[in-house]
């Protein structure tokens, strides 16, 4: 296994230390941040106006001009909500299925193209993936850093919540790649936070730490154990819909009651609502360091004292403490076994929050001057460790290139991303794309490009004996096990019938470090075009499943449709078929969206009919 750094300008491989600046990035739900190491100390970088380090994670699509990100985009949340995307981190790596409860809360349109497919966001006539939108935020951060440091930034460590799954981590990596960054590693936010507090940077120590992170819209509690510089997450808990925004709402609601008016959002005056909300956030921040607040909103006098505010948010804080209790139980630790409790996230600036956390854990929780910068600062420390600048830290063995399999349309599906620790093991489920398919060819590839044809084929084998089933029914688990010597064992197993095949491959055989460097460089210079081809292929794959499902539906349930409806449905299916063979990604998505929207009521009708038939069937029996 290798510990390599690669010069992205010329593709040369450097076995000593990396010389370029490696940055740490906190890609947050509410705010994002980029930091670097300045003379041994982590420092957050300010935006291009040089005024603040936090970049609101908001992307606005103006009608005529280029995309804007951050503060410049924030003002459009009220004036142009359909074209202003926020909280995109909530959508990363998710399918529509995972999201059904939250889509109604967002001001922009999320496209439902089948429960299993990844979500897309519709802006005008264009369809964006959360990966593309996150890449826009990363590009902005990169730009800010390049301006301030007067150098090009190519390599980064990006943080994710500890509970992020494989798909969400991969999506974050893809976003980095698309933004032109070589993502050296994806690091857990609580791990980064601990590093920022200097915990775990000393190889000798053995510590147990609770990380309490209260941001704008989310709350996370993680219990970590650090041994010899290795972080293990013992447990995580939290609430993905609890944060500082709820503190703002509590103040807003109090004022509405005081003034005896309806919530402005409800009465339809969005801009007044936003003025109240902005002032509520201002009041909250003011109360972190003062005892009372008074202000004026559109000629209405508003006020609140610190003790009133604390009373309002007491139940919200209590909820976070319950989650801490749960996380402790899951970690099988007693409070007294913890060495440190650390506070992360802008909302821990509220004194009542830090007091409550300290009281619960029975020890003074550690503060940082800027709790909202902590994660990015720690990511910069991690980057510095990976760059080999901290001689006291050990570097773990890692895989130099990603390993994955070919999926429909020649796409590379990465199972073990490059820079993963070894040994490493992962399983993922796949299915068939054709009815009655009894064999499945598994082709294993190595490399960073989105299409397997540009990667290195390591081997292939056939899983046979799958019982004939309708397309999509078989559950095929592919397991990748990579050992410390780079031997990859691949197992394919059909879970309904238990048929299984496996092979062993030596993953680093016959490839030089120079070639690896070249492959990595190519993946970044081709990221944009690869992404386009991949998005088109994914749209085609989805469209093909929609076409199969639609044809099936018509052959079984055409009786729930009137003659006109049948003609229209057939017409829309034909349009989709034609777009799928020669259209662009957006044209295919558009046609799929139109067909789905038109036929959804019929699918419901057919469902009712089937249920009625089965009910009446029972009565006869
Ligand atoms: P995220 O991790 O969700 O991206 P942050 O850690 O940046 O978010 O936290 C953002 C939240 O912190 C917002 O709700 C903001 O109002 C709140 N916040 C920032 N500064 C203060 C302060 N001085 N007092 C209270 N809350 C604050
Ligand atoms: Mg955060």
Return the domain count. 4
Q: Quick one: overall form?
A: globular
Name the structural class. Answer: alpha+beta
Distance between the termini: 66 Å
Count every helix, treating DSSP H or I runs of 4 or more residues as helices: 16
The CATH architecture of the largest domain can be given as: 2-Layer Sandwich
Helix content: 25-40%
CATH topology term of the largest domain = Nucleotidyltransferase, domain 5
- Our estimate of the beta-strand percent is 15-25%
CATH homologous superfamily of the largest domain - what is it? ATPase, nucleotide binding domain
Question: What molecules are bound to this protein?
Answer: adenosine-5'-diphosphate, magnesium ion
Major β-sheet, in short?
6 strands, mixed
- Unreliably modeled segments: 616-621
Radius of gyration: 26 Å
What is the CATH domain class of the largest domain? Alpha Beta
The beta-strand count equals 28
Query: Kindly state the mean pLDDT as a whole number?
Result: 87
Give a verbal description of the structure.
The chain is an alpha+beta fold and about 625 residues long. The chain has 4 domains: about 20-195 and about 370-385, Nucleotidyltransferase, domain 5 (2-Layer Sandwich); about 200-370, 2-Layer Sandwich (Nucleotidyltransferase, domain 5); about 405-525, Substrate Binding Domain Of DNAk, Chain A, domain 1 (Sandwich), CATH 2.60.34.10; about 530-615, Up-down Bundle (Substrate Binding Domain Of Dnak, Chain:A, Domain 2), CATH 1.20.1270. The chain is built from 16 helices and 28 strands. It is globular, with a radius of gyration of 26 Å. The protein starts with a strand and ends with a helix. Bound molecules: adenosine-5'-diphosphate and magnesium ion (MG). The site of magnesium ion (MG) has 4 residues, from loops.
């Amino acid at each position: 296994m290798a510990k390599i750094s690669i010069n992205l300008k010329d593709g040369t491989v450097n076995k000593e230390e990396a010389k370029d600046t490696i940055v740490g990035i906190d890609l947050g739900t509410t705010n994002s941040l980029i930091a670097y190491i300045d003379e041994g100390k982590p420092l957050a970088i300010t935006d291009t106006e040089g005024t603040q380090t936090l970049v609101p994670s908001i992307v606005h699509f103006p009608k005529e001009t280029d995309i804007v990100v951050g503060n410049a985009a924030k003002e459009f949340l009220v004036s142009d909500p359909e074209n202003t995307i926020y909280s995109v981190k909530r959508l990363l790596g998710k399918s529509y299925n995972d999201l059904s409860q939250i889509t109604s809360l967002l001001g922009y349109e999320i496209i439902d193209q089948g429960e299993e497919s990844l979500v897309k966001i519709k802006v005008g006539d264009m369809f964006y993936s959360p990966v593309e939108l996150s890449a826009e935020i990363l590009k902005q951060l990169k730009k800010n850093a390049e301006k301030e440091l007067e150098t090009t930034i190519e390599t980064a460590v990006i943080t994710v919540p500890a509970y992020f799954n494989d798909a969400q981590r991969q999506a974050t990596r893809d976003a980095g790649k698309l933004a032109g960054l070589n993502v050296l590693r994806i690091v857990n936010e609580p791990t980064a936070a601990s590093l920022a507090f200097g915990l775990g940077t000393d190889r000798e120590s053995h510590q147990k730490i609770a990380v309490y992170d209260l941001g704008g819209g989310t709350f996370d509690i993680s219990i970590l154990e650090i041994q010899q510089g290795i972080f293990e997450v013992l447990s995580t808990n939290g609430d993905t819909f609890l944060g500082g925004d709820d503190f703002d709402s509590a103040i807003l609601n109090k004022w509405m009651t005081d003034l005896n008016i309806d919530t402005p959002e409800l009465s339809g005056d969005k801009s007044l609502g936003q003025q109240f909300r902005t002032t509520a956030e201002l009041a909250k921040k003011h109360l972190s360091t003062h005892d009372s607040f008074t202000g004026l909103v559109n000629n209405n006098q508003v006020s609140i004292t610190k003790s009133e505010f604390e009373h309002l948010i007491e139940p919200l804080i209590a909820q976070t403490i319950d989650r801490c209790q749960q996380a402790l139980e899951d970690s099988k630790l007693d409070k007294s076994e913890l060495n440190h409790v650390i506070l992360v996230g802008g909302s821990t600036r509220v004194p009542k929050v830090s007091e409550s956390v300290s009281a619960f854990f029975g020890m003074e929780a550690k503060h940082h001057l800027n709790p909202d910068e902590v994660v990015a600062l720690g990511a910069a420390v991690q980057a510095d460790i990976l760059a080999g600048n901290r001689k006291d830290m050990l570097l773990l063995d890692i895989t130099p290139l990603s390993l994955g399999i070919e999926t429909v349309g020649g796409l590379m599906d990465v199972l073990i991303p490059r820079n993963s620790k070894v040994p490493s093991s992962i399983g993922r489920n796949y299915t068939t794309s054709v009815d009655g398919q009894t064999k499945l060819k598994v082709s294993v590839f190595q490399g960073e490009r989105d299409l397997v044809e540009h990667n290195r084929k390591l081997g292939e084998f056939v899983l046979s004996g799958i019982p004939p089933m309708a397309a999509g029914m078989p559950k095929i688990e592919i397991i990748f096990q990579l050992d410390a010597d780079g031997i990859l064992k691949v197992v394919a197993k059909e879970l309904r019938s238990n048929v299984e095949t496996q092979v062993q491959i030596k993953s680093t055989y016959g490839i030089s470090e120079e070639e690896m460097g070249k492959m990595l460089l190519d993946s970044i210079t081709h990221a944009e075009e690869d992404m386009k081809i991949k998005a088109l292929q994914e749209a085609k794959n989805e469209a093909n499943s929609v076409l199969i499902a639609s044809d099936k539906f018509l052959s079984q349930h055409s009786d729930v449709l009137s003659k006109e409806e049948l003609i229209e449905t057939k017409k829309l299916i034909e349009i989709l078929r034609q777009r799928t063979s020669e259209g662009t990604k957006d044209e295919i998505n558009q046609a799929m969206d139109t067909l789905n929207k038109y036929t959804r009521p019929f699918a419901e009708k057919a469902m009712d009919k089937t249920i009625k038939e089965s009910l009446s069937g029972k009565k006869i029996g």
